[in-house]
Design goal:
This protein starts with a strand and ends with a helix. It has two domains: 2-119, 3-Layer(aba) Sandwich (Rossmann fold); 125-228, LytTr DNA-binding domain (OB fold (Dihydrolipoamide Acetyltransferase, E2P), Beta Barrel), CATH 2.40.50. A five-stranded parallel beta sheet has the order 2-1-3-6-7, with helices on both faces. Strands 12-11-10-14-13 form a five-stranded antiparallel beta sheet. Helix content is 31%, strand content 33%. It has helices spanning 10-23, 35-44, 65-70, 85-90, 103-119, 167-173, 218-228, and strands spanning 2-6, 28-32, 49-52, 55-56, 59-60, 75-79, 95-98, 125-128, 133-136, 141-147, 150-155, 160-163, 179-183, 186-189, 193-198, 204-208, 211-215. By secondary structure, it is of the alpha/beta class.
């Protein structure tokens, strides 16, 4: 298991590391003392969970939860105060631990994270440009379009990323995640196609949510029909 431990107190981080080491020999961890370090870590690497303090040098740990959600990383709160519990659970945290953290409570939280890890059917993929990396869920990708030797990745929330991979490389990366090649320059998430229209010319046109229609090339239309026995 790979955990991100976020706490502005070195002794508190050291204690969590010690306790986790007792429960998970050989586990991996990254430490962050503030929100900026934690956000940077989430962009660089995929984690199975975040152990998050609620008071971070004048900032609230709640501010990190949207970033953790965006990267598909579940959050466990570790704090000395009960007063944040309602807001934390409203933000869908996995568990809420009070300091000093007791081993049985930490064991329960780690067990929840472990079950989520095993049930995770949509593992993260890492997209990058020349400056940054983003761990993302394939299910959040609507469409991938070729732009020279790069690709533009369009997401279901209508955000876009330009990444340093060719369409062929993206096709290989997403080969096990229900993506299909529509034409020479586009690849689409099959799970997010609303309907595929058959034209009299034999072409196929896919209707997507929140995006213009995508037309299959003759070659890819033939491959699609063959694959799905249409």
């Amino acid at each position: 298991m790979n955990l991100l431990i976020v706490d502005d107190e070195p002794l508190a981080r050291a204690e969590l590391l010690r306790l986790c080491g007792e429960l998970l020999p050989g586990f991996r961890s990254t430490e962050a003392s503030n929100l900026a370090e934690a956000r940077s870590a989430l962009l660089r690497e995929s984690f199975d969970g975040v152990l998050l303090d609620m008071e971070l040098g004048g900032y609230s740990g709640l501010d990190l939860i949207p970033d953790a959600k965006a990267s598909g990383t579940p959050v466990v709160i570790s704090t000395a105060h009960e007063r944040f519990a309602v807001d934390a659970y409203d933000a869908d945290v996995v568990d809420y631990l009070l300091k000093p953290v007791e081993v049985p409570r930490l064991f329960r939280a780690i067990t929840k994270l472990s079950k989520m890890q095993k049930q995770q059917g949509d593992e993260l993929v890492l997209l990058s440009d020349q400056c940054n990396c983003w761990p993302v869920k394939p299910s959040s990708i609507l469409l991938v379009e070729a732009e020279g030797s790069y690709c533009k990745v369009l997401f279901t929330d209508r955000k876009e990323l330009t990444v340093s991979r060719s369409l062929k490389e993206m096709e290989q990366m997403l080969a096990t995640h229900s993506f299909i090649r529509a034409n020479r320059g586009q690849m689409v998430n099959l799970n997010l196609i609303k309907v595929i229209h058959r034209q009299s010319s034999g072409r196929l046109v896919a209707e997507l949510e929140g995006h213009e229609d995508i037309e299959f090339s003759r070659r890819q239309a033939q491959a699609f029909r063959s694959k799905f026995s249409l």
